[in-house]
Prior knowledge:
The structure is a homodimer of 211-residue chains. Chain A is built from eleven helices and no strands. With 211 residues, the first copy, chain A, is mainly alpha-helical. In chain A, 71% of the residues lie in helices and 0% in strands. Chain A has helices at 9-16, 25-39, 46-53, 57-64, 67-80, 86-89, 96-111, 121-125, 131-155, 160-179, 184-210. Chain A is elongated, with a radius of gyration of 21 Å. Chain A folds into two domains: 21-79, Homeodomain-like (Arc Repressor Mutant, subunit A, Orthogonal Bundle); 83-210, Tetracycline Repressor, domain 2 (Orthogonal Bundle). Chain A binds chain B through residues 39-40, 42-43, 123-124, 126-127, 129, 138, 141, 161-163, 165-166, 168-174, 176-177, 179-180, 182, 186-187, 189-190, 193-194, 196-198, 200-201, 204, and chain B through 39-40, 42-43, 123-124, 126-127, 129, 138, 141, 161-163, 165-166, 168-174, 176-177, 179-180, 182, 186-187, 189-190, 193-194, 196-198, 200-201, 204. Chain A binds a DNA duplex (30 and 30 nucleotides) through residues 7, 11, 14-15, 18-23, 45-47, 55-63, 66-67.
Amino acid sequence: MKSKPSKSGADERVAERSPRRPFDREAGVAVAKDLFHERGYDAVGVAELTRALGINPPSLYAAYGNKAGLYERCLEIYVAEANLPADKILTPDRPLSEAINDLLRQAVRLYTKSKAKRGCMVAEGMRADDPQARQLANAYGDAAADFIEGYIKRSQPHQARKLADYVVTTLQGLSAGARAGRSRARLLAVAELAGQAFETFLHTSDESKNA
Amino acid sequence: MKSKPSKSGADERVAERSPRRPFDREAGVAVAKDLFHERGYDAVGVAELTRALGINPPSLYAAYGNKAGLYERCLEIYVAEANLPADKILTPDRPLSEAINDLLRQAVRLYTKSKAKRGCMVAEGMRADDPQARQLANAYGDAAADFIEGYIKRSQPHQARKLADYVVTTLQGLSAGARAGRSRARLLAVAELAGQAFETFLHTSDESKNA
DNA sequence: GCAATGCTATAGTGATCACTACAAATCAAA
DNA sequence: TTTGATTTGTAGTGATCACTATAGCATTGC
């Protein structure tokens, strides 16, 4: 009867937190995230992960379920760490083209911040051979694309999708360029071009759409 | 004495052409090319290749050296088949922006021509996990980028690299979009935007650069 | 016919893949 | 101290990786 939910409330809290500390799951996710970001989902094996985390395979599976589960946690904190805080950049109070321009430039800075971890972890994950990993990354990628499209739609409802596609395509190209080793300066120049192009789209669209 | 170079000259020609037909190397390359294009270098194993070619592993290695060697042949004919005849599109007799616009649109058509073989085989190969395959693809990618930059430099010597980077980045984004399953119509819209953007770059650059 | 040539298929190489069965070890609660 | 729960390390699962040693076999020139 009272076997499960008996005793005091404090016990339940303690019971939830594992009687014997496993190995710091959170830190493990951070380490794995760097590995996945640096070399991609497929190229990082479980053996290398366990070596990097200082644990053995059974601990990894007990903690995260499987390799894809760990990757999911990595994606989660990668996005949550606000590496590219789209919600902070795409704010309703600033001009659309200025916000997009800022987004592109900040993306380049992020993609080229680390020499090892080049490009966008989500965008690169969408190209993984493993279908499960690809699906996980796609979820975040689609969410980001929807967010951008929704933001554009506020001021440009007629061609929001086309413009959002342009932005997303540019971001994917910038991520690929970063991964290929193109320098930050050159990518920033491209981002600036794309940003100033975006501004012209709004002008020309106003003319044609109002006609 | 007369054992080796005796007899008639016709024999030498026949002797060169393998006494027993191997298995049609050329056709094998074409089949392998489709597989590599469809699923990427890493995802296609030697076992699957030999199955698709109707041969056994030793024949593959005797014919192409190794998996990377076969991939190299595939890349070669992929590019040579003029899937995207840049030299036919980027001709000196047409306006720069028109040529670039055409290049982008034709690229989209190519990237979305087959439902299975999406994107650019070279651009996608540049992301392979295998360093050898990556290097092979990079060679073709760099050559294409240089060709584009050289073409732009003819009419825009000051900012050819920046503009070429923009075009290459857009192409990579389009390839990624095609691989992600984005429709031809949407990608064509993006290509058109990028093309019309490219034209504005020339105008604005003329003003600022001449000052 | 007879050896030489050259491609073929059978079978298997060690390495690595993601993943797990099992039992020792450690903790909490009784 | 005993019991029960849980994580740990050891060791190994079958599968697949790229690749190859060996030998059979068909065709060639003699």
